[in-house]
Amino acid sequence: MICISEIRLRSGEKCRLPMQHESVQFTLQCQMSAGLTPGKLIVEAGGRLVREISAFVPIALRDRQEAPAVFEGRLPCVIDDGEQGFALLVGDMEVVRLDGQRGTVDSVCRLNRRHTDDRGFYTMRLAVLSDSALVIYEGGAMRVNRAGRVIWHTCLAWDDILDGSDEKKLYYSTEFGEFAPAGFTVDIETGSRMPR
Description:
- The protein is an all-beta fold.
- About 0% of the residues lie in helices and about 55% in strands.
- The protein has a domain at about 1-115.
- Strands 1, 6, 7, 8, 9 and 10 form a six-stranded antiparallel sheet that branches. Strands 2-3-4-5 form a four-stranded antiparallel sheet, with no helix packed on it.
- The model is unreliable at about 55-65 (pLDDT under 50).
């Protein structure tokens, strides 16, 4: 079964990635920075470091006014606990695929983001289809199959706003460009854009 999840870790915390059919155990560790600087996600497979990912938009949590802020990292992911045993992790700048059978971490795609972006505008939605997953964010949308292959990836402008979706299309409104003011749709099967 494929499910959507969000891993939450405070700086220094570790967790095991919950995949049922894995021959290699993945461990995630969060190393956070103060402010809006992205932290690092340390991915270990079988006790050895396999990847560092720029990930998480830190959220400051305060239990009491006088207490120092505790920074928590959040990482959206799609986890398959079926026979294939894989996970797609969405960092700040890229999507990676963890293969539970081989114990590898492979880059799937760079996101349409820059290190100079104002991270306060970042958005992320994940959706699961029968054979793939959709990664929908403020700078684009992509469809990734279970093998980690990008079927399509379309870039969006900051003013393209997702209004909704159905089983065939994503619906966007926009203020500028060739589809303004009516907006456009993105076909989920092909990734092509059409006017509304």
